[in-house]
Amino acid sequence: MDRKVNYIKGKESWQEETHSLNIPIHRNAHGEDTADIEKLTDSIKYLASDLGEDQKIQNGSSLNIPHPSATAKQVSSPEARGSAKPASVPELKKPTAASNSFDIPKASRPKQAAPTVKTPAVPKETPAAAEPKTAASPSVPKQSSSFAIPHQNQKTAADKPAPAKQTATKEDSFTIPEAAKHIEPSAEPVPAEPVPLPKDSKPREEEKHSFNEELTQIFKRKPKETPKKPSYSERMAVGMKFYQHLLIVFLVTCMICGAGLGYLWFWLSRYESHSVNGAVRSYLKQITNGEWDAIYEEDCTYFIELNSKDKYISWLQQKYDALTISELTYSFTDADDLSQYYTLYDGSSNRIGTLELRKPDNKSSWVVRTLNTSLSYDFDVLDNTAFSINNVSIDSSYTNESDHVPYGFENLGLDDKLPTVTRYSIKNFVDDPDVTVDNSSANMAVRDWSANQYYIGPAATDDQYTEFAQEIQDTTTAYCEYISKDGTFTALNRHLYPNTDFYNNMIGFNNQYYSSHDTIEFQNTRIYDVMPLGDNAFIGSISFDYAVTASDVSRTTSSSYQLFFVKNSAGSWKLTNLIIISSDNGNEDTTAESATASPTAG
After folding, report:
1. Can you give the pTM of this predicted structure?
2. Quick check: 465 pLDDT over 80?
3. Angstrom distances, CA of residue 174 to CA of 126, 141, 142, 442
């Protein structure tokens, strides 16, 4: 049986082959490309003549070439065009005498052959020895077992090294049809008219070149390798690495969150400590922990703390030991240019004291102390005399007011006769302050027992002391004799300044209750704290034992008075006030009080 070779290629490849054989291509009425059968026959003759004089076309051999119209239809289909694959053209061996077929090397076979029409198998025959090939030997493309006539611009098999000879099989051969056996090859092929290209198409050579390059790149691609499945240890290593990274991310996130929370806590704590509420809580915590030394040092640093350390700590302990600190509350009371004041209450809402809060310039938080408002003192200073309180020097930085008259002579209408003083008002004393003056030989400080008041200024000279002391003793004797009915008001009135509160009290004093006695006697008299207040006033104190005898019974009373004198228009010293500092009646001590009561009442 004759083996038929399917000569169907893609449209472009078929046109190239026909173009290389100068076979004119015509487009029929249906738009299909057809080749001139006569020209094709001449080309076959030319091919047969190149096979050699000793290779004759055997009877019964055939070359099945499809009808041009059928070929054109197949070429024009997209499937045919897409199935064409460029490949190098191997060298064809001349047909043997037995089979009259061309030998196609197996190495040149494509892995996937183009669709061909299979012929029945024929028994294998031993091919004759192949004659040396010429330059005109045809080449067979890789895609199929059909042969291809090279293009004029293509390299022929003669330009390439000859492959090893292989024995042709029945699948690798084709036969020449009977009609072509007796065709005499022409001397040279008749050139055919070139096929005109469409106006919008590229030149044939460029199309072939780009098409071949594209297919070459496709065949050069390596097939995708099936990924190797990782082993258990490899999967474990990858998993451990992943969890390590996850752990690092978690730890870093925790660190960032922790730093943010710490920063927020720091600022909230700082805000709390810098607020009024935080300052009060911190102060009460110090009291609870018994940090008395720290409290006193802070008071001395930021406040006018003029109490001695021992007296102040003792006073704080007595004040807070009986209280439950956690139950204490406070509320705003008042404020001035320097401080804010809060009233402190216990758990039963009873007022127990006052807190003073101040924010110093060199400190960002508030400082707190407990005030003792019942012991605030005023200090009237003459001639800018320097003084100290509990060894703390007092200067103009403390609250002060000028142009005052001494406190004991206010409201007498004698301002024109009295000197002006500078008054310092200092709070938070828990006990009587210890007042000292600079240059004590020339200056002095005297307590006014009628109020929490001190007078600070020059001391009395010797002459002044003698004069003032005598006036103090005479006035005290007249006062005591009037109280005990041993003297008259007329005798006392010679020592009084008229129209004062003390003068009015003495006029209305009833001395009828004093018991009758035989004699009176002044014993252990001492005159002290004598201080001039300018040229027209002075103060002084006297203490003595007043002994009263009735029959065989004697009774002694110790008394201390402070007296205030002013010079009248006649130049005489007159008493404006008398303050009882203490009175011992039956070993009972009394504090300073008004002089309306008898010092020797018995």
Report:
1. 0.53
2. yes
3. 16, 14, 15, 153
